[in-house]
Design brief:
The chain is α+β, with helices and mostly antiparallel strands. It is 24% helix and 21% strand. The chain has one helix at residues 38-54, and strands at residues 12-16, 22-26, 31-35. The longest helix has 17 residues, at 38-54.
Length: 71
Amino acid sequence: MNEEDFWIDDCFRVQQSRWGTWQSYLKDGAALILSLTKEECILSTRWYLKAKQEGFPEPVKKHDGIVRGKL
């Protein structure tokens, strides 16, 4: 079986580039996650697709751009 024919969770695949990084792709060819290792690419892509389906978690802390105090 060719690695390009191997679908993870039947919805995406990962492929190593010539530079050694790993990229995940949907079945329609859309690129998703770029990672340094194959395992991290699979883990991150699974998290992203689940969050996209169920909704992303709210941020724990919000930051503003106002500087308080003297510079």
